[in-house]
Please model this.
Amino acid sequence: MSDVPTTDDRDPAAVVTGMINQVLDLASTWTAWDGKPIPIDDRVYTPHKALRRVTDHLIDHLAEIEARVAGAPTIPDHWQASASTTAADLAPFTTEDLDEARSRLGRLAQIFELRLGKLTVPELDLREGDAWSVRQIAFHLEISLYYATAVGRLS
Model:
């Protein structure tokens, strides 16, 4: 991996859960979405796409952390990423979708809290080869907020 994430003295689990809370705060306004994809940079975003990207990113790195803790090789991801906008991404964003996102991301936040909370400082900071440390992965996940801010706060 390149572009090593910068870390600071914040608790890595709090970094991840803080990002998730910010995403959910923005998502709480997305039932007002008018159905038009939002162009940002060289991509377009919708509420569903933003949540898909945040969730996929969390799952990808959670799997990486779990594999590393277990001493197993990681499995390469095959996500569609943000270059792809699926038909599901274009669906209306309903109150039920928001409830699903809260449940899904709330559970992921808890898993990160539990996993990262069980690791010692040396385990959080261990780097093998050019792989990022678990702490660096947690801080890297903060960039997932980009997807939610691409949609923004809707009214």
